[in-house]
Amino acid sequence: MAEVVDNLVWHDAAELPIRGKGWRLTKSPYDRLPPRALGFVPDGVWTLSRHCAGLHIVFKTKSPAIHVRWQLLRPELSMHHMPATGVSGLDLYGRNGKGKWRFIDNSCPNAQAGEHEFRMCGQKWGQYLLYLPLYNGLTKLEIGLPEQHKLVPLAEDQSVKPIVVYGTSITQGACASRPGTAAFSIAARQLDVPIINLGFSGSGKMEIELAEMLAELDARFYVLDNLRNMAGLVEERFEPFVRRLHKLRPDKRIVVTEDTDFRNMLPTQITAAALPIVNKLIGEGMGDILTFEPCKGMLGTDWETVIDRTHFNDIGMLRQAKVLVKMLKKYIAMT
């Protein structure tokens, strides 16, 4: 039920279609895993699943201003290597007359609870995309419009299967300055396809329970972006995970992305450990559905793509997105 305060009609975002969710029934509308995952997946994965990475709301309105007010799950608005605009911020995009999404503003949070007004500055977008925080959750989110303007929610086309991505902190969005500049968010906008982001920071380590969870989703195909987290774990976990996912979803393609190095010193030791297993599985008959995607040259040669030698800044995210768009487009054409 919408609430009217000072000539603004406040719409509860929990009652709107939230895109980027793999499971509709979650403990909080802004969680990424269902309640049954609690106690089934590692504690770190569950905690990170309450972060809103990849979740967004699309709607239409003719209002010249859009207000938001929020209550964040955690009081820690930022991290030592990532600003509050990315960790806890809300990003608003508008779709122009050519169908392209363009950035409008970020909520720039300075408190766990707050309010922000997005001004259109004379632009008439009509359709809007509101990204939720990358590394924080929400307990409350409302969108406010002047009384004379309507909010028309736009749900995802359920006939289009999502690409399901499982991975690391970089997958989740570290260390983009805003939710909209995370690589998989950029790729989803450019390709206009649904992507479910199951990046779980340093906890994305291919436990067999996560293969079970991924298999619950009827994906267009799966992208396993985990190798950065798999030092010392490849021999133990990589093959069982891929085999289990393939057994549960034998008709779905599985794309494995290469481990990265900001200096382009490739292959890394992790990749060197994973490649023989990939080749073994392909040789055993998985060649039609298992592919390995290299990242040579993805980050360029200037060493300007990272915050801390590991996590991507916006330059790194943009360069990764360019490679992702080309890669994902290839597999989209196959499905």
Summarize the structure.
The protein has helices at 43-49, 84-87, 169-172, 183-191, 208-215, 234-248, 269-286, 314-332; strands at residues 3-5, 8-12, 56-60, 65-72, 91-95, 101-106, 113-119, 127-131, 138-146, 152-153, 163-167, 195-199, 221-225, 254-257, 290-293.
Structure, explained:
- By secondary structure, this protein is an alpha/beta fold.
- The protein folds into two domains: 117 residues, Jelly Rolls; 170 residues, SGNH hydrolase (Rossmann fold, 3-Layer(aba) Sandwich), CATH 3.40.50.1110.
- The chain is built from eight helices and 15 strands.
- Helix 4 crosses helix 8, helix 5 packs parallel to helix 6 and helix 6 runs parallel beside helix 7.
- It is globular, with a radius of gyration of 20 Å.
- The termini are far apart.
- The mean pLDDT is 96.
CATH architecture of the largest domain: 3-Layer(aba) Sandwich
Total domain units: 2
Question: Can you tell me the residue ranges where pLDDT is under 50 for at least 5 consecutive residues?
Answer: none
Strand sequence of the main sheet, in spatial order? 1-2-9-4-7
What would the principal axes of the Cα set say about the shape? globular
The CATH topology of the largest domain is what?
Rossmann fold
**Tally of DSSP β-strands:** 15
What can be said about the biggest beta sheet? 5 strands, antiparallel
CATH superfamily of the largest domain, please?
Answer: SGNH hydrolase
SSE arrangement, N to C: EEHEEHEEEEEEEHHEHEHEHEH
Strand pairing plus helix content: what structural class? Answer: alpha/beta
The proportion of residues in beta strands is 15-25%
CATH class of the largest domain: Alpha Beta
Mean pLDDT: 96
Distance between the termini: 40 Å
Helix content: 25-40%
- Count the DSSP helices: 8
Rg value: 20 Å
